Amino acid sequence: MNLAYHTAYITGGTKGIGYGVAEAILQSGGNAIITSRSAAAAEAAADKLNAGGHSGKALGVEADVRDAASQRRAIAAGVEAFGGVDIVIANAGVGHFAAIQDLSAEDWQETIDINLTGVFHTVQASLPELIRNEGYLITISSLAGTNFFAKGSAYNASKFGLVGFTQAVMLDVRDHGVKVSTIMPGSVATHFNGHTPSAEDDWKIQPEDIGQLVVDLLRMPARTLPSKVEVRPSKTK
Fold first, then answer.
1. Residue 2, domain member (yes or no)
2. pTM metric for this prediction
3. Is the residue at 75 inside a domain?
4. Could you mention a single GO BP entry for this protein (predicted)?
5. Which of 58, 66, 87, 185 could disulfide-pair with 8, CB 3.0 to 4.6 Å?
6. Beta strands across the sheet bearing 179-185
């Protein structure tokens, strides 16, 4: 699909899934606004993407999903740079894993603030642009949004909540011409939770695979909406 004249806003876009999605968007001819809490990281990732020779362009913006005003400023920066935003990928996330008796209130709060409330801020900041352009919102949840596990109380709560939030938003905005999907990956080879990807992760889903999935969703006919997509490695380790 040629995404020329389309612009995607991607939270947490400097590495992992967010970067893989941004690269797929650029390879398909679109533009990408990638955010990070670090201005230097956002700009460095955008420079790397722009060095790939794609027709689309990347813009790195400092923004924190926990700050609603920060999200509004980042969307405004994208509109100023590219004339509009019609694709939003709410990807920024964090994981803290501990048995409930060991889970700190601080780790609980950060997980909910980034994984759930942060998506709320992103959606509210981008919704005027999505409605104006009849765009597409995609949230990146997890199989942990439907499968609970030990030491996952904070993460499960945030991702179960994100799945429900996304599906409710889909119903709120579908008659405004906005499509909404949530992608629920299993094991992905990323830097999530302090992991360093290596050759031993070749059995896992790769970030570029999620990027391809996003582009495939954008290719769907306007009349058809895959509202919830579970994706897992085709084989176990």
1. no
2. 0.95
3. yes
4. monocarboxylic acid metabolic process
5. 87
6. 58-62, 31-36, 7-10, 87-90, 136-140, 179-185, 228-231
Question: Which residue has 């709410």 as its token pair?
Answer: 90
Domain count, the chain: 1
Q: What is the pLDDT of residue 103?
A: 98
Average predicted confidence (pLDDT) for the chain: 95
Taking Cα atoms as reference points, which of 95, 99, 126, 118 lies closest to residue 8?
126
User: DSSP H helical segments within the chain, as ranges?
Assistant: 16-27, 39-50, 68-82, 105-112, 118-133, 153-173, 207-219
Angle, vertex CA 203, rays to CA 198 and CA 209, nearest 5: 90
Query: Does 204 map to a domain?
Result: yes
Classify the C-alpha dihedral 52-219-76-65 as positive or negative. negative
* Spatial distance between the Cα atoms of 197 and 161, rounded to a whole number of angstroms: 28
Read off the tokens for 216: 């495939």
Which has more pLDDT, 2 or 65? 65
The 3-state DSSP class for residue 223 equals coil
Q: Find tokens 């009349």 and name the residue.
A: 223
Domain harbouring 28, CATH code: 3.40.50.720
Give the domain extent around 144. Answer: 7-231
Active site residue 155: yes
Residue 236 lies in a domain: no
